[in-house]
Amino acid sequence: MNTRVSKILGLIPARKGSKGVPGKNMKLLGGVPLIRYTIDAALESELLTTLLVSTDCPEIAAFANRFQPECAPFMRPEYLATDHSPMIGVVAHALDYAEAIHGEFEYVVLLQPTCPFRPPGIIDATIRHITMHNFDSLISVWK
Fold first, then answer.
1. pTM over 0.85, yes/no
2. Kind of pairing, strands 107-110 and 8-13?
3. b/e per residue, 90-112, with b = 16+ CB within 10 A?
4. Number of other CB atoms surrounding residue 9 within 10 Å
5. Is 28 buried (19+), middle (13-18) or exposed (0-12) by CB count in 10 A?
6. Are the CB atoms for 55 and 72 separated by under 8 Å?
7. How big is the CA angle at 116 (ends 9 and 18), to the nearest 5 degrees?
8. Is 63 exposed, middle or buried (0-12, 13-18, 19+ CB in 10 A)?
9. What is the rounded CA–CA span in Å between residue 29 and residue 37?
10. CA-based, 20 to 30 A from 9: which of 52, 87, 101, 143?
């Protein structure tokens, strides 16, 4: 693995709207809001240096901020919170905010709340893999 420490932004995009399941990120799964699984996995990471939740929903922001203060420090603009908003715009908006506060990041780890069942350690293993091989990007999938 690369021996220098990288600045890595963990980004959880969690808007309130959804055509299929309105309010899905706060829907209970096993008695726990769906987004909580992703927040917990991100907080267990030893390699993420900053965690942000990008949302247009005050309820989601307040929930996320209970686990890490200032985890959701801004509201995502409406034009980035539609069914047709490209994820790259959401990432760029959050990254601009994060870099204005924390300086430049080398990597962004996009953590979708709709993928709640991450194996323990998968976030850090993925970060180690991408830094070891000096990749520009990497996606993990589970079948």
1. yes
2. parallel
3. bbebbbebbeeeeeebebbbebe
4. 22
5. exposed
6. yes
7. 90
8. buried
9. 9
10. 143
Per-residue pLDDT tens digits for 56-95: 999 999 999 999 999 999 999 999 999 999 999 999 999 9
Which one-letter amino acid corresponds to residue 137? Answer: S
CA 68/CA 116 separation, integer angstroms: 18
Mean pLDDT over the full length of the chain:
92
Question: How many CB atoms within 10 Å of residue 40?
Answer: 13
Residue type, 77: P
